[in-house]
Amino acid sequence: MNSAVLHRLGAVLPKNHFTRIYVLSVLTLASACIIAESYILFLTRQSHTVALGNLWQVPGVQQAVTTSMTTYMVYNILFILAQAYTIFLCMEALAHKDIIQIVVVVVFYFVCVVFAATRYIAFFIYPSVAARMFTFNQNVYIMQVTVMVCYVLSLVSLAVFSYKLKQVVGWNVYKRLGADISLHRAYLWHQCLMMLLKMDIYFIGSYLVQMTALVLKVDDIETWLQITVFIPFCVIVIAGTLFALHGERRRLMQGLAACWFLSIGYFVFKMYRVNAPNIIHMPNDPYEDSRPFFMITVVVCLLLVIATGIASIQCTCNFDSGLKEAIAYDKMRTRHMKLYNKKDEETVQLLPDSVLSAHERFALE
After folding, report:
1. Could you report the per-residue pLDDT of 214-272, keeping only the tens digit for each?
2. Band of the pLDDT at 346, cuts 50, 70, 90?
3. Cα 17 to chain centroid, rounded
4. Residue 302's pLDDT band (cuts 50, 70, 90)
5. Taking the mean position of all CA atoms in its chain, how far away is CA 164?
6. How far is C-alpha 274 from the chain's CA centre?
């Protein structure tokens, strides 16, 4: 392989060997989960086709089975997207030396374990009418157990890696921001809010997908309120919080913090509505197959909006502490270092391989 290519590849990969092992572990475990979830999705679609063709010929029952299968397939897709999002979170955390985000990825996997265990219970312990077709399906059983094992392995291994990376990454913060304790505390809350907003994007987005694809109906007024009010509200609040945080706009952040706390009432209402006596166990129950998954999502969203509101207030108190200028200076310094390394890399590419080999031998000697 050309020495210039090796030089460029080494610039992309993390320099620390332990960090490279962490990246390889994340990619391997996430890829295994994606393959397993994709196969479960294939088996679900296959079972749905067989069921419609052979077992349920009554139109009303066919519609109910189709609704249930759509629910399971939507959650399979969300599980796959969760693994892709986990890879993004890990890579971005390493790129920005964000130890809080590295630790939160472990929490993210814990939520994945809870979802996977809930799905196993819904399929094989307390199955619904539609889920009973999977009770004796060994392939689905084996793949769901495999997914749970992969999630547990990911949870344990990433917890160990996060503890080790704390020492590798944590020292970098002191080199970037200095030894000012108040500045470090402000930066800690800045990282916390950034991390919470990234989690909000996935889980609130997941909640909106579940509501839109599985629950709401075209002739229901709640559908149009969801589309015209709640979805734009979520986008504006998340984007506005990011804008206010980076620009240290105190008044805007205070208003958005109030919006986060007002959202608590909405999710509490949704928890009641999902389990309302006039809905649960009724013939047209829209949450029949999605209730356990939906409730976990609502509870996670509720905890996230509370935490995001608290972090927003704390970040507001830390405005004008010099953190904005320190981050801007660190970005400028990083940009200059990249330009310097790029020029050095271009110089290396211009040198013939014989010169590079001689240079490498001289360095080794």
Report:
1. 766 656 676 677 777 788 888 999 999 999 998 889 999 999 999 999 999 989 988 88
2. low
3. 25
4. very high
5. 22
6. 24
Cβ-based neighbours of 92, under 8 Å, separated by 6 or more: 98, 101
Name the token pair of 6.
Answer: 């090796």
- Read out DSSP for 48-77? HHHIIIII--SHHHHHHHHHHHHHHHHHHH
Residues 337, 351: Cα–Cα separation, whole Å: 21
> Cβ(162)–Cβ(106) under 8 Å?
yes
Q: Is the dihedral of CA 64, 70, 76, 82 positive or negative?
A: negative
- Reference 195, options 85, 355, 78, 302; nearest CA is 85
CB 293 within 8 A of CB 75: yes
Task: Tell me whether residue 202 is exposed, middle or buried, using C-beta atoms within 10 angstroms of its C-beta: 0 to 12, 13 to 18, 19 or more.
Answer: buried
Give residue 315's pLDDT band: very low, low, confident or very high (50, 70, 90): very high
Q: What is the per-residue DSSP string for 3-32?
A: HHHHHHHHHHS-SSHHHHHHHHHHHHHHHH
How far apart CA 301 and CA 276 sit, in angstroms, is: 19
